[in-house]
Amino acid sequence: MSETRYDWLADRWVIFAPNRSQRPDEFRHVHRSSSSEVECPFCLGNEQLTPESLLVLPRRSKASTSPQLPTGRFASQRSNRTWQVRVIPNKFPALAPISLSGLSDLDVGHLSENHNDSKRPVLPMLDPLQSSYQLSGVHEVIVETPKHLNSLTQLSPTQCKLVFEAYRQRLNHWRAHDALRYGVVFKNVGSDAGASLSHSHSQLIATTFVPPEVFRCCQRLMQYRESYGKDFFEDTIEKETIAQKRIVYRSERLIAIAPFASHVPYLVQVLPIKDEPRFEETSSQTLGELAMLARQMLAAIEKMFPSAAYNFVIHTSPFDPNWDQSFRWRLEIFPRLTKVAGFEWGSDCFINPVIPEEAAARMREQLNLSTLLAN
Amino acid sequence: MSETRYDWLADRWVIFAPNRSQRPDEFRHVHRSSSSEVECPFCLGNEQLTPESLLVLPRRSKASTSPQLPTGRFASQRSNRTWQVRVIPNKFPALAPISLSGLSDLDVGHLSENHNDSKRPVLPMLDPLQSSYQLSGVHEVIVETPKHLNSLTQLSPTQCKLVFEAYRQRLNHWRAHDALRYGVVFKNVGSDAGASLSHSHSQLIATTFVPPEVFRCCQRLMQYRESYGKDFFEDTIEKETIAQKRIVYRSERLIAIAPFASHVPYLVQVLPIKDEPRFEETSSQTLGELAMLARQMLAAIEKMFPSAAYNFVIHTSPFDPNWDQSFRWRLEIFPRLTKVAGFEWGSDCFINPVIPEEAAARMREQLNLSTLLAN
Fold it and tell me: Which residues contact A90 (CB under 8 A, 6 or more apart)?
């Protein structure tokens, strides 16, 4: 069972999850792009190795799937040969599971106290020296393909859009849950990025609290609006459009930029041009375009840095609607080219060897815009 | 030339240092413990490959060293066969060098405005969207041995104490410099910890600003003192002494603990029992004991995790004496066993698979206290 503790000095929560050290780690001996020798739990036909699906895309119609239930040695009633994207609970969750039937006493207590107060993080008062608290949440895996492919870039455009559709549906599902306050979708590819399995997948975490870093970010966005009377991201897009130097892609709906003060090299941020706080409420058109753009940007990273690990993270507004007025959803993609060394670790001062203007220029060269716009 | 930019949203400075991508990287192809095939610039006899020494230990006496100046093919006037520890400027500095002859106009301007105000970070008012500022500092390398050894644990006790003596002297040197506000000593071993050369070495960075994370930490320490009327670290040591569970080592002078809310596994923090803000002003006895303890802890880490990278960081009070009343110096050692994945990256919520009580117990088992106390 995981336990969460609070480091008062660093203003940081730490989740102790001893069960995560039991995770399979196929990277210890094999290269990320080589095929796995252990039986892959995400492959078609191995559904019995994972918990039951929470979502399957495309949606099953009873008539078409029932007759296809497999009957072989490894088949179970859960297996379904028609799935293209499966969402399952993470077998090694980072957080203690929430009670889906209702809230615990502790949750009820602090929720009733703070429920509508977006000025404070939703956490009880803490002992600076030793506060321990049972934080809970959900941790899911989005299996992006039934085939043993290592990258989202190997998926067809249709398949790739289904993956983003799964993100949207799961975030919408959890936003409606009373006990949860925040959700994030992310993708770790390669051991250096924190991945433990190579079959193309992403993850969703939703928590009963707003993480401190996210809370601080939200506060600063509100502060910006109060000080300048305008939206931080609107101003950013305006300024970047005038400067031109850091824009990687721009359409009617989306803009991709290498942020002015990226703390890691080749980080690209994709934002909606319109003021949309919630990723999961964007239009199908925007979602489809985002999926294609993400696929192209990952392809660019794979071409420029063939063996590099990478992450992407989709930030969406915390579930309390009070935050919506200043938040804007965004996708961040970044290869893991630099290591966090002793200095950065202790100072939060990052050393980035690549200036964003150069990163943007190289990314632009790599993007195949004609293919992107054709899909 | 490096440029520093400010990410207003994350409240984080980012140093762009394109010259660092030219650093030699012998880890790309060889294992950390294997001997290097490139000529090692830190080895005895290769002094001409590095800038001139800033400090050599033991201190040279003119009589003994002058006749020993080498005359061979690779020798230069800088080479000196008697050195045991050398401190040199980093050839690939993370920061723009400070002008040692005096302050620049910009520095003078903001220093005169904020010089005695420890309530604010020493930085001018910033544009939230795009602030760029030339931050400068010094970046030095402490070459810990003339031999091509890969670890501090391979040094003799005397040699190891000389290394810590070098840290002390260099920090004392830079604290006295008007333009500098903060200094830190750190050690990166292995590629995953950010090292680029395997010859045992550590680094010192001193900056014209207090990094945001350090500033926040200092503020919280002051806040603790104001709220509770006591010292944060004094209370921590008292509480840990009662609990016993997380203590790795304790003597009259030093205590080593696995902190209650460590964000990474097996992190150990060594603190002076007495309230000492500045590492560089500790007694020779404490310094010697710390050197031996650090050597033993690194040996324990190397034994438990033979191929793991690791870091240590020595935190000392920022140079403004106003911070001294609540700061305490400390050494932090941690192997790099976990990767920062998408979730941690976006939330500052770390996932640690090892509970500190267990980490402390395992570290205690590994420490050879009889050897430690004999030196």
Answer: A139, A140, A141, A203
